[in-house]
Amino acid sequence: MSEIAFLILLLFASYLAGSIPSSILMGRFIRGIDIREHGSGNAGGTNVFRILGWKPALVVLIVDGFKGWFSVAVLAPAFFNAQAIPDLGVVQILCGFAAVLGHTFTIFAGFKGGKGVGTLGGMLLALFPSAFLFCLTVGILTIIFTGYVSMASIFASVSLPVFILILPPFLGTDPAPLSLIVFSLLIPFFIIFTHRSNIQQLRNGEENQFKKAMIFRKKDSD
Questions:
Q1: What average pLDDT does the segment 155-174 reach?
Q2: Is the N end or the C end of the chain the one with fewer CB atoms within 10 Å?
Q3: Considering Cα of 15, then 74, then 48, then 39, what sign does the dihedral take?
Q4: How many distinct structural domains can be found in the chain?
């Protein structure tokens, strides 16, 4: 098999891995519903939390993150080892983002999936763990101070290229490869695109806050 054919096959495998609709499957399994027809209508962890509770949401978040991590840490090296490609990082980014696209436009649910944050997080965990931890911290702090998960996702994505550039000198490690730097600069645009409806709701003062989702869950359980 040629290198191009094998890479295409690998990217398709990554896309299929990312396409596993964890939140939709969780909704079907727990309550027999399509999670996209409830709450915010999004097939993501936050909406699962709002509708089904924190335990199913945690499972969904872990599975979504694993899809990105698996594509980068397992599938990409398989191609690298088989074809002796000189730049593993580029292949990892391609495979990881194929998984993100699979999550966002899942072939198993009419190409209507989540917003890609969890899968991107798993991808980043495999590519640059320290940057992942700092971006996660930015996201958590944003939720604490604003209550908006969408805003946390955007702020975390915007901080990603900053951390990728400044962390290596402080950690005493080699600078991030150019492919990762370029990719990190593109990620905020992707996150803003997938959160465009949330941005409009923020402008209109209609965006749901995370703490309100918690109150909703408490009343629902009562």
A1: 94
A2: C
A3: negative
A4: 1
The answer, yes or no, to whether residue 24 has pLDDT greater than 90, is yes
Cα–Cα–Cα angle for 60, 64, 70, rounded to 5 degrees: 140
CB 35 within 8 A of CB 24: yes
Per-residue pLDDT of 36-66, as tens digits, reads 999 888 888 889 998 999 899 999 999 999 9
Locus of tokens 């940057």: 131
Question: Which of 159, 177, 173, 22 is CA-nearest to residue 91?
Answer: 177
Cα dihedral across residues 62, 68, 69, 75: positive or negative: positive
* Whole-angstrom distance, CA of residue 129 vs CA of residue 220: 37
124-161 burial, b for 16+ CB within 10 Å, e for fewer?
A: bbbbbeebbebbeebbeebbeebbbbbbbbbbbbebbb
Query: What is the mean pLDDT of the segment spanning 88-100?
Result: 92
Q: Would you state the structure tokens that stand for residue 161, as one six-digit string? A: 């290229």
Contact between residue 76 and residue 88 where contact means Cβ atoms under 8 Å apart: yes
Q: Record the pTM.
A: 0.90
Query: Which residue range is the domain that position 154 belongs to?
Result: 3-221
Helix (H) or strand (E) holding 86: none
pLDDT for res 215? 45
